[in-house]
Design goal:
heterodimer, A: 243 residues, alpha/beta, Rossmann fold, 2 domains, six-stranded mixed beta sheet, three-stranded antiparallel beta sheet, 24% strand, B: mainly alpha, MetI-like fold
């Protein structure tokens, strides 16, 4: 049923010049799972995501992503829409080889429908709100039906309400499509709302690996969530004091 | 008393409202200021006023016809020149020169600008040379050009092409180089080929800057051509003006100057129309 990729990292290191960012990471991510990666800024969480998405090469070690077809898609912190392309054309960018074909166009239209923007096909990005732009970016990432989706703090710049809306949308689409999701975020409660598994990156290594086995859709008033959040925040804050 | 002060105050701020109309501008369309903005005639109020003032000064004897002929005299000179076919002929010659110089210089500059924008090697090889040549005032080459080409068509083509080259080159190069690197990274992560990357991301991203170069180049184009025509030509509007000077036909000289103004405005307007079409996506060009 699930069509997500299994992702495995073996002794993956990444350094920029003399500065090591990730050290000897070993990680297995189950197909179709939702993993959140959190950590203090500069801890290497975005670097990890970019390695998995294939935007950067590891300095050492190997990354294996199972399954054929499209490699993991990356959703950036900014929407990164082409300002000179209408919403539909922006989604078409995500099609890969099918760009410009009639079936491709139909799929792009369906993807926009899916994120609730079926009536804004012809809109220029400049006329869309921040949340709508991120929806177009989500449609673009999903239109090629990737087996894995990497999200690099895509909701960071949105207001609180739009953020919750987007979280629900992402969860809904993830449950329907079964891809492997990797979410980098600095928001602990967001990680706990969405993820099956939360990884905390400290000093370029995985410092904490928690499984969140709670029913979905989650409500933020569950006692376990509050407890977990406190536990993670404690860890993050003591790390700061130690440093 | 304070009422009047407040009224004066608020009308003084109308300038601001003209430049930055408030969102509810539609509701108070009836106001004269918004009618002024929406009218297509508004930009022509000032030229018409100046023309009327000029005619008045000439008719009233404040302006000697030897210094500046009245607008009516200029129109009469124009009618004569249209009648004997000279104006059309010279206009056609000048327009053809302008267009060919623009196409040759602009085309080469566009190609080199793209090539240097896209390839570091190409930039390393040619940019320094281009920058050196750019700093030579192109009109200083006129004596040399006359020695090379005489006063034939080649001299005008060479000078206009050279004048047009640099603004187009610099702005194309700059446009390509300043395309948002985040968009390029996005496009690569979606597996765009180099060709697609160019057509979908780099070229449209560079276009606003290219248009700046085009509009600037059009100004340089007329300037260079007219100087070249007054010095080294035996046809064209510039030549017509120089001939008229020899015979003290000051009305024809003024006519030629007014024709330059009209041609410049025409060229600029057509590029702006093109720009509005091509940059529809840009917030600055959205229809209100």
């Amino acid at each position: 049923m699930t069509r997500g990729s299994a992702i495995s990292l073996r002794k993956v290191s990444k350094s920029f010049g003399a500065l090591p960012v990730l050290r000897q990471i070993d990680l297995d991510i189950a197909p179709g799972s939702f993993t959140a990666i959190i950590g203090r800024s500069g801890c290497g969480k975005s670097t990890l995501l970019r390695l998995i998405a294939g935007l950067d090469e590891p300095s050492e070690g190997e990354i294996h992503i199972s399954g054929k077809g499209t490699k993991p898609r990356l959703m950036f912190q900014e929407p990164r829409l082409l300002p000179w392309a209408r919403a539909l054309d922006n989604v078409e960018v995500g099609l890969g080889f099918d760009r410009g074909t009639a079936t491709g166009r139909a799929r792009a239209q369906a993807a926009l429908d899916h994120v609730g923007l079926g009536d804004r096909l012809k809109s220029w990005p400049a006329t869309l709100s921040g949340g709508q732009r991120q929806r177009v970016a989500l449609a673009r990432a999903l239109v090629s039906q990737p087996q894995a989706l990497a999200l690099d703090e895509p909701l960071g710049a949105l207001d609180a309400l739009t953020r919750i809306e987007m979280q629900r949308l992402i969860e809904e689409i993830w449950r329907a499509e079964g891809f492997t999701a990797l979410l980098v975020t600095h928001d602990v409660s967001e990680a706990l709302m969405l993820a099956d598994r939360v990884l905390l990156i400290e000093d370029g290594a995985i410092g904490l690996d928690l499984t969140i086995d709670l029913p979905r859709p989650r409500r933020c008033d569950i006692a376990e969530l509050a407890q977990l959040e406190e536990q993670i925040l404690d860890r993050l804050l003591t790390q700061k004091n130690a440093a | 008393m304070s009422d009047i002060a407040a009224k004066n105050f608020s009308s003084g701020w109308r300038f601001l409202r003209v430049a930055f109309p408030p969102r509810r501008a539609k509701a108070d369309r009836a106001q004269p200021s918004s009618r002024l903005i929406s009218s297509r005639l508004t930009p022509w109020i000032l030229p018409a006023l100046l023309l009327a003032l000029w005619q008045g000064a000439s008719a009233g004897g404040f302006l000697s016809a030897e210094i500046l002929p009245s607008p009516l005299d200029v129109v009469k000179a124009g009618v004569t020149l249209i009648g004997n076919g000279q104006l059309a002929e010279n206009l056609a010659v000048s327009t053809r020169r302008a267009a060919s110089g623009f196409l040759v210089g602009g085309g080469l500059a566009f190609a080199l600008g793209l090539s240097n924008g896209l390839s570091r090697l190409s930039e390393k090889l040619t940019d320094t040379t281009v920058q050196m040549i750019r700093n030579i005032p192109n009109l200083s080459l006129i004596p040399l050009v006359i020695l090379w080409f005489g006063i034939g068509e080649e001299s005008k083509l060479f000078l206009t092409a050279l004048g047009v080259f640099f603004p187009v080159y610099i702005n194309t190069f700059h446009g390509v180089r300043t395309v948002d690197a985040q968009l390029v990274e996005m496009a690569r992560s979606y597996g765009m080929s180099s060709r697609e990357l160019f057509l979908r991301v780099i070229f449209p991203g560079a276009l606003p800057s290219i248009f700046v170069g085009l509009r600037y180049a059009l100004g340089v184009m007329w300037l260079t051509l007219i100087v070249a025509e007054t010095i080294a030509a035996n046809s064209g509007i510039g030549y017509m003006a120089m001939q008229a000077r020899e015979f003290m036909l000051i009305d024809v000289v003024v006519l030629a100057i007014l024709i330059y103004a009209a041609l410049g405005k025409l060229a600029d307007s057509s590029v702006r129309a093109l720009e509005r079409r091509a940059l529809q996506w840009h917030p600055a060009f959205h229809k209100v």
